[in-house]
Amino acid sequence: MKSLGRNWIFALIFALSPVLVLADLTALIPESTIAVIAEETSGVAAKRTLDTITLYHRTRASSQFRQAAEHVLARLQAYGFEGAEILEYPADGKTMFGTQKSRFAWDVEFAELWELDDDDRRVKRHGSWEALPLSVAQDSVSGNVKTALVDIGEGTSDADYASKDLSGRLVLTSSQPEVVAERAVGELGAAGIISYAPNQKSAWWKEDDRLVRWGHLDGFADTKTFAFMISLGVARQLQARLAAGEEIVFDAQIRAHLREGRYALVSAVIPGVATPGTDPALAAEEIVYSCHLDHPRPGANDNASGCVSILEAARVLQRLITLGTLPPPRRSLRFIWPAEIEGSIIYLSSLDSTAHIKANIHLDMVGGGAVTKSVFRISGGPMSLPTFIADAGHEIGHFVNDQTERYASGEDVPFPLVSVEGSKNPQLALIEDIDLGSDHQVFNEGSFGIPGIYLHDWPDRYIHTNFDQAANIDPTKLKRAAFIAALQGWYLANFDGDDVAPVLALLRANAMARARDLELELPSLSVAEQAAVLSVHWEVERRKVASLEDFASLSGNQKQTADSFIAGLSKLVGIPEVEAAGIAHDNRVYRRNPDIKGPMHAFGYSYLEDHLPADEYAGLNLSGVLAYEALNLVDGKRTVGEIRHWLLAECRAQCRASTGWLEPSDVAAYLAALERIGVVL
Ligand SMILES: [Zn+2]
After folding, report:
1. Which pTM does this prediction carry?
2. Cα of 564 to ligand 1 centre, how many Å?
């Protein structure tokens, strides 16, 4: 193929061009299927369940998480999911589930924080478990003190503590309680903590000083203590009074427990049914929907919204199958409601095998209305896991974007996907690749390797605060999220040989769009780096085609045509494929240790940090997406040098903008550290 000239390439592209323009989604999915799912999906039904879930302060393995889980279970049973169940796992502070150490269950009986006057009378309440459970930092233990307040600022430097007597006092800090607990309480004898730490940075993150934000203590730390969370506005008032020399005394009472309990995980399935002429083994394969049911009350967008949207997708598909409007799916559709990240690691690592899970559809924050400033996104996952599922999910996203934008602009369209109690805004979803931050990164992780799509809002100005309320949620967005999820799941559950040709056409079109982006980005790289990035780029395109074989067989002709197309396209972009000369090549090859499953960093626990000496951990320069993907790319075949090329191809310009230049030695050091702790061999 390499000997063929450019004229041949252009001829190939022009010959294929009639099928490159997909008029609409019906090239992939029959309009009748789109119509029945759209008509059945209800944003209002989803919103009603959300209203109930937001009543509960849903920290993992707590009694209120359990109540939320029971409510989801009851809805599933009402929807006809007779086999729906709550799976339980020990929350005991010690059991290892893959890379996640089980955390203790945490429950609070009572907590109040009162300011006292000179006569010991209560004058103002600054914290209350009953009224505002977010005012108690997660993993607080019992305490009962009447004592004065000392401002320690960030509480991270010696200067913050200079000439301050903390003994028996409460400390006021802008840091998360877990950051100062060891020093302020463990070493210097403070009685407890009051924090106004901001988190989840966005353009709005310190603007609204009424917000009380989610606080954390480390349940595994040696020093156990308690902390109350107050708003920035209240903190500023207290600071001003302290700075003026006033003594402020609080009565802090809390009865709370970190103790052995049980994680709960709701699970329901629409079983696959073998049809005549199809492989009966398909019924055992699963498309798994996930969300995360945990989070502080109210937690409406994060993440009651995702949980009720997969519940609505479950209801819709179950209803249509029961009515006979849709046939039973060929593959099974499973729906799970875990605690974020740790619940997904626990679930997947507890299965004998995850080979039967063919795809994951994850929803986290999908209902933010205008007040939240949210931007809805459809993410196709990491480059380490090239998949046509991303392209199909994006196509559904484009379809909803197009229909809803035209509807908002005054056109009559068949699928406006508007809820009667919701907005009429256009969806305008961003179509994107890797975007970390929720349970999908567990499914996508190298030890499980389950591809999928991830629907989510970002930013959200009220995330992890007491203002993440049900009133902010737009039922139209819930309807659209549930629709996209239901349609994508149904499509994948029934995917067979007839679906291959339209997907190959879509992949060709998308390969050209991606080539266009690549062409524009290449000039910022050296020639050697361009060669490295180009070779990875085309390998990803080939693997996207190959990913179809997890779902259906490709004919020899289909494979050859797809190969030829990618080979042809590769000759049009950038420089020809050459050896990546000039880049130091590290030829070590690692393979993943199959006995340690899961990502290195989870919720409330980091396997890497726990197993590596502190100075070595602090010396690692690879973090975030790059660290996550470096491990995912370990496959027993790629060299360390090639893994760096993949990382370079994935982050390209962003590598320079956000994470600093990607040094070969940083990649090598990270993987060598993983080898030392046995994660790779
Ligand atoms: Zn969250």
Report:
1. 0.94
2. 44
